[in-house]
Amino acid sequence: MGFTPEDILDFSVSFNPFTPPPQVRKILNTIAIDRYPDSEATELRQYLSEKLGVAPANIQAGNGSIELIRLIAWAYFRHGDAVLILEPTFGEYEVACQIVGAEVIKQWGKAEEDFAPRIEETVSLIKQRHPAGVFICNPNNPTGQYLSRQEVEAILDSCEDSLLTLDEAFIAFVNEGWSSIDLIHRGNVIIVRSMTKDYALAGLRLGYAIANQEVIDSLRKVCPPWNVNVVAQKAGVAALEGTDYLEQCKQKVRQAKQFLIGELHRIGFTLVPSKANFFLVRVGNGERFRTALLRHGILVRDCASFGLPEYVRIAPRTMPECQKLVTIIRALKRDGELDE
């Protein structure tokens, strides 16, 4: 279409739309890139340990959360193992299972229930199939559904023979969230989080897993050396040293999200309630909607890859950018370019 990447307003990616913390930029000229990084990411894990209240031995750093998801599959699943995934959700869980030859069991949410998982059905499936693993994205991508502690514990209570992976990549943007960290003491829970999304570090790739030491040791056995580069490690430490950056960004994202929700409702769209920093919009034909906006230099996520071709996912950006998005959608709607 003749656009460069810099020309596009990208509402399709669900992470912090603001620039990284200023302290991250300051350290970029101080890093020795001619040396191998610390393969243990010791300093980063120490900072995370102090922030999270767990021992460094309970933390594994990763080259983004996707690497951690694949490490879990390599360490714990074998060919023919059953793994339960609550759909619609992040596609990398299934990809990781396919890589090791595990059998994927899918439990689908219903559109009329806003794709909320049916917990009793989940528990019943686990008791019937005894999967080697269960993946739960909380809050879920792309639906924004957020399970309560009681719901997660009900699932965990049925996971006697299963490893529960709780993917909290978007937890930083949930209002009134609950802490899952103490669940790692159950022994069969691993929590995956992303610093990429929290601190606007998408180009560096940085995430971490929290679990008891036995689980972390199992991940380290299959983790490649030097998996987190030195720039990402130092940037992660610099970001964690900051105090109010993330909270300020959360407030701005929350304001922009509420603006978009209100305006899209007024235009006449149906939205799926979301606890995350993104939401689903039912548009009839997601591919057509995406293409119409892209002609104007705006990108939203067509959700066909999630099995939801009638929806797009939108993640708020700055307020001026959100206002531009609404203006263009109104014009396209008025001119009939968004009609099915």
Strand order of the largest sheet: 2-8-7-6-5-3-4
Over all CA atoms, what is the radius of gyration?
Answer: 20 Å
CATH fold title of the largest domain: Aspartate Aminotransferase, domain 2
What is the CATH-assigned architecture of the largest domain? 3-Layer(aba) Sandwich
Overall helicity:
25-40%
> Terminal Cα separation, in Å?
22 Å
List low-confidence stretches. Answer: none
CATH superfamily of the largest domain: Type I PLP-dependent aspartate aminotransferase-like (Major domain)
Question: Can you walk through the features of this model?
Answer:
This protein is α/β, with parallel strands linked by helices and 340 residues long. It has 2 domains: 103 residues, Aspartate Aminotransferase, domain 1 (Alpha-Beta Complex); 220 residues, Aspartate Aminotransferase, domain 2. It has a 7-stranded mixed beta sheet with strand order 2-8-7-6-5-3-4, sandwiched between helices. It has a 4-stranded antiparallel beta sheet with strand order 9-10-13-12. It has a two-stranded parallel ribbon with strand order 1-11. A hairpin with an 8-residue loop joins strand 12 and strand 13.
